[in-house]
């Protein structure tokens, strides 16, 4: 931690009550380019008073924002999606500089968030109640979906555009106000998206941003004026957030760690399956909660391992800004050392190192946090490289004799974000989708993240809370369903007199 006044680099601002303000904090973190170690900016760890001010601003703004017509809210997000499209390349460049992923992948990061913004613009058809007419004599029952109040989001480093865009657009479109805490490792693209959101017309106080670490996270979980918390990140932190926020009486949804398995059956299209696995395991340097990091090869498919390794060797490791790059750097020096340590643990525990990416060298970017594609075979449950989420460009391969054994392996793992099967058998695919205990299933595609018409549906150890972060489920998460039972009297019903029974007849 350093004092920002001692360094001639930009400082990341807070957004409080419609103004981008300099924090008064004495604690700051450097935002580092992971390919070069260049200091791009400094981000403050907001003070308790600044968090309180952000929440107070959101609470005050809620009084009028909740009454804003739904069409007016939708038009803001129509404008917002247009602005994001116009600034796509700028946003991707900022993201690549601070996070490391390739420019095309950075554009994909922004685009997947843009899809949720487009969905938010359709709020008029999403936030609909139900009505039953004349459920009893002259009685109607209907529901209305009302906003909760101040909501908050805590986002991770690996998707600094997409995941904030999962959160605040849907929360605000449903009539809530919002306090966002981006990752302190790469907040710059998030703040540019926030600037565009203000330009699109989000009113003062409806969106606020604070930065920080554990103290700010705890303040969000504890604050009595925050009604709901959405989180994406590690299992350790997500479990803490869920327990602390729900203990404080808040709604919480936490999307957490993963160990996503893919199964290749011997009847699969070999070329398509191996290409898909290489892309899904090593894209974004494996820093995806939906990375296909674990492969179960069934029967004769195990003979394809050498071809898989050869395909992985063709991937180009370089800075994300360089044309033709397939695998960029890891987010930090600490992440780099952790991934290398897990690779070393895999070799000690007896897994076969088919491809070793630890000694990769990138000319011109010698200080970058690079690990090349790495593949282990002969992996078994109980090994650290299987039991832990590596979050790097490392693919671990297990062997199974049958589809039944593959399903048993996956269902025994505590995580449940995503899984996939590669096969040309409809019967095998249907059996897999029915018997697998994982929230998101891909058939002949490795990363089964649904479009925003649906919702992200991770399960088991990968998720706490029963509602997903976008789609129809998040409209339910960010609203309170109120049931109204109404009778309007006419002369006939008025003549009935006193009725002491529970019946509405």
From TrEMBL:
Residues 20-484 form the Aldehyde dehydrogenase domain. GO terms for biological process: L-valine catabolic process; thymine catabolic process. Its EC number is 1.2.1.27. Gene3D superfamilies: Aldehyde Dehydrogenase, Chain A, domain 1, Aldehyde Dehydrogenase, Chain A, domain 2. Belongs to the aldehyde dehydrogenase family. One of its GO terms (molecular function) is methylmalonate-semialdehyde dehydrogenase (acylating, NAD) activity. This is methylmalonate-semialdehyde dehydrogenase (CoA acylating). The keyword NAD applies. InterPro entries: Ald_DH/histidinol_DH, Ald_DH_C, Ald_DH_CS_CYS, Ald_DH_N, Aldehyde_DH_dom, MeMal-semiAld_DH. It comes from the Bacteria.
């Amino acid at each position: 931690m350093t004092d920002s006044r001692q360094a001639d680099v930009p400082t990341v601002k807070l957004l409080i009550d419609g103004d981008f303000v300099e924090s008064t904090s004495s604690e700051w973190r450097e935002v580092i380019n992971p390919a070069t170690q260049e200091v791009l900016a400094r981000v403050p760890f907001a003070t308790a008073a600044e968090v309180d001010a952000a929440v107070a601003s959101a609470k005050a703004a809620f009084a009028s924002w909740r009454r804003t017509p739904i069409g007016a809210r939708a038009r803001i997000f129509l404008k917002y999606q247009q602005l994001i499209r116009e600034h796509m390349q700028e946003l991707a460049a900022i993201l690549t500089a601070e996070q490391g992923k390739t420019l095309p992948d950075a554009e994909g990061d922004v685009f997947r968030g843009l899809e949720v913004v487009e969905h938010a613009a359709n709020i008029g058809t999403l936030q609909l109640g139900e009505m039953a007419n004349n459920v009893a004599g002259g009685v109607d029952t209907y529901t209305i979906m009302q906003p909760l109040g101040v909501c908050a989001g805590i986002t991770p480093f690996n998707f600094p555009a997409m995941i904030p865009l999962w959160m605040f657009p849907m929360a605000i479109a449903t009539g809530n106000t919002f306090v966002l805490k981006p990752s302190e490792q790469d907040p710059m693209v998030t703040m540019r998206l926030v600037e565009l959101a203000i330009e699109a017309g989000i009113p003062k106080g409806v969106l606020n941003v604070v930065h920080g670490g554990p103290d700010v996270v705890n303040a969000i979980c504890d604050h009595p004026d925050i009604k709901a918390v959405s989180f994406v990140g590690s299992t350790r932190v997500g479990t803490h957030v869920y327990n602390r926020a729900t203990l404080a009486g808040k709604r919480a949804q936490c999307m957490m760690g993963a160990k996503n398995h893919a199964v290749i059956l011997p009847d699969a299209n070999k070329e398509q399956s191996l290409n898909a696995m290489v892309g899904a395991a090593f894209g974004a340097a494996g820093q995806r909660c939906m990375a296909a990091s674990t492969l179960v090869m069934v029967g004769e498919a195990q003979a394809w391992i050498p071809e898989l390794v050869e395909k992985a060797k063709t991937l180009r490791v370089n800075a994300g800004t360089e044309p033709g790059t397939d695998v960029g750097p890891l987010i930090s020096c600490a992440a780099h050392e952790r991934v290398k340590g897990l690779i070393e643990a895999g070799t000690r525990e007896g897994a076969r190192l088919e491809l070793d990416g630890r000694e990769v060298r990138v000319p011109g970017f010698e200080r970058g946090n690079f690990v090349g594609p790495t593949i282990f075979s002969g992996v078994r449950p109980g090994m650290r490289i299987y039991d832990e989420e590596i979050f790097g460009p490392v693919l671990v391969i297990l062997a199974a004799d049958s589809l039944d054994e593959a399903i048993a392996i996956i269902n025994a793992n505590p995580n449940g974000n995503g899984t996939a099967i590669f096969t040309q058998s409809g019967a095998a695919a249907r059996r897999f989708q029915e018997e697998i205990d994982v929230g998101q299933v891909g058939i002949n595609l490795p990363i089964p993240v649904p479009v925003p018409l649906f919702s992200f549906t991770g399960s088991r150890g990968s998720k706490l809370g029963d509602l997903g972060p976008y789609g129809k489920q998040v409209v339910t998460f960010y609203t309170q369903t109120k049931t109204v039972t109404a009778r309007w009297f006419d002369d006939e019903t008025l003549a009935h007199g006193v009725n002491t029974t529970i019946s509405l007849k």
